[in-house]
Specification:
With 316 residues, the protein is an alpha/beta fold. 36% of the residues lie in helices and 23% in strands. The strands form three sheets. Strands 9-14-13-10-11-12 form a six-stranded mixed sheet, with helices on both faces. It has a five-stranded mixed sheet with strand order 3-2-1-4-8, with helices on both faces.
Length: 316
């Protein structure tokens, strides 16, 4: 939403704010640049003084005249209420409260989708090279929840709420051997950082953080078993999503959790489970879809900046 579409961009900056399920990341940038200025990460506790924090950024750098938010939650009518926290940001409310010329709010995975065109092949780790056959991509990643977006022709981004869908859950929980399916009601109960902790609890009856589980993969048999099952579940769920969205351009995985699990991902096993139980014609289609892990950090901030740079071309 823009108050003055004729505003001059040459001497102004954009403030980028990514509010995720666990942390808030911030940076500013020159209009038209791809360089983040003073990127920073802090806990979500700062949201209790959100207005003061935002005003502090503007006071510290008066050249900031534009803000792009990426927020973990579905966008409705110019506002987002976070999925896992009682916190809302509204575009018009920001414009009314603060001396800025424009404010845009994106779903966090919508933002990441806008950054997909930035990444070159050498900035990714390929699970499957494939043979791209259309303009549709799926970008996905487990973090506090499970986020995803579809990127279609001309890099139009369509955010989704895949993480809160239910398909494939009963079969996977049966395979896990867990009796109470109510503990895993939606996909992100299984494929997320919290999902990894739930899997570990099913095996041990002990609560451990995702970070602790990843750190003990080589020394704790249950950590290894939990991560292996997590990756098996990811491959099978991706197979379902691949047939639903037909991402012939590729499936792109992002986020710190998957980057930390990369060394434990067996490509052959992953692809076997991705293709398992498929008719030959569907397996042939799935084999042609590239699957890659984006190695870039702060993907939301980069995506938000790329989004703003593209739209600013029409506002000069």
């Amino acid at each position: 939403m823009v108050n003055d579409p004729q505003v001059a961009f040459l001497n102004s900056r954009v403030l980028l704010i990514d509010i995720g399920g666990t942390n808030i990341r911030t940076a500013s940038a020159e209009i038209g640049s791809d360089v983040l200025i003073n990127p920073n990460k802090q806990s979500l506790n700062c949201l209790s003084a959100f207005d003061e924090m935002l005003q502090g950024f503007l006071d510290e750098d008066p050249s900031i005249k534009h803000i792009v938010f990426s927020i973990a939650g579905p966008k409705l009518h110019g506002s987002i209420t976070m999925t896992n926290r009682d916190f809302e940001v509204d575009e018009q409310d920001i414009l009314n409260k603060f001396n800025v010329n424009s404010c845009y709010i994106l779903n966090d995975w919508e933002s990441i989708g806008h950054g997909l065109s930035l990444y070159k092949n050498d900035e990714m780790s390929f699970i499957n090279k494939g043979d791209p056959f259309n303009d549709t991509a799926l970008i996905l990643g487990p973090g506090t929840g499970l986020g995803a977006a579809q990127v279609i022709k001309n890099n139009i981004v369509l955010p989704t709420e895949i993480g809160n869908s239910r398909f494939a859950i009963p079969e996977l929980i049966l395979e896990l051997g867990h009796e109470n399916i109510a503990d895993f009601t939606v996909i992100e109960d299984l494929i997320s950082g919290g999902g990894l902790s739930k899997i570990y609890f099913c095996f041990t009856g002990t609560n451990r953080s995702p970070e602790e589980i990843v750190a003990t993969y080589l020394s704790d048999d249950f950590s290894k078993k939990s991560i292996d099952f997590f990756l098996l579940s990811l491959s099978k769920i991706l197979s379902e999503l691949a047939l639903a969205y037909m991402p012939g351009r590729g499936i792109f995985l992002a986020g710190g959790l998957l980057r930390s699990l990369q060394e434990y991902l067996d490509v052959d096993s992953f692809m076997k489970n991705f293709l398992i139980s498929r008719k030959s014609m569907h397996a042939d289609v799935l084999e042609q879809m590239p699957i890659a892990l984006i190695n870039q950090e702060m993907t939301c901030l980069h995506g938000s900046l790329n989004f703003f740079n593209k739209i600013s071309q029409n506002l000069k």
